[in-house]
Amino acid sequence: MTDEGKLNEFRMEIERVTSQILDLVERRLDLAREIGRLKEKLGMPVRNKAVEMRLRERVLENCKKTGLDEKFAMNLLDLLVEESVRAQRTDRVEE
């Protein structure tokens, strides 16, 4: 295979992986909405700082094991958490 062919193969794999990541994000948001419904039913607030801190610790541990950049991972986690919070709050307003 030529270098150009390899490049195209890598690009196609990046597209597949990106699609898989987005599918997982969608699943994560579905779970967050379910959690939000249960929290509302139980009279709990949307945010739980202790749970968020445990998740941060686990992500940092994973970074140490895999070598993934911690700043990148924390930025990504911040996006995921904020979107989960937004989804839970939106779900409360809509119902």
Summarize the structure.
The protein is mainly α and 95 residues long. It has helices spanning 3-41, 49-66, 70-94.
What attributes does this structure have?
95 residues, mainly alpha, Chorismate Mutase Domain, subunit A, 3 helices, elongated
Describe, in plain words, how this protein is organized in 3D:
This protein has helices at residues 3-41, 49-66, 70-94. By secondary structure, it is mainly α. The longest helix is centred in the N-terminal third of the chain and has 39 residues, at 3-41.
Average residue-wise pLDDT: 95
Amount of helix: over 70%
What is the beta-strand fraction? under 5%
Task: Using the coordinates shown, work out and report the CATH topology.
Answer: Chorismate Mutase Domain, subunit A
Gross geometry: elongated
Helix and strand run: HHH
As an assembly, this protein is: single chain
Distance between the termini: 55 Å
- Total of domains: 1
Total count of helical runs of at least 4 residues: 3
Please summarize the sheet with the most strands: none
- Report the strand count: 0
| Structural class by helix and strand composition | mainly alpha
Question: Which CATH class?
Answer: Mainly Alpha
Radius of gyration: 18 Å
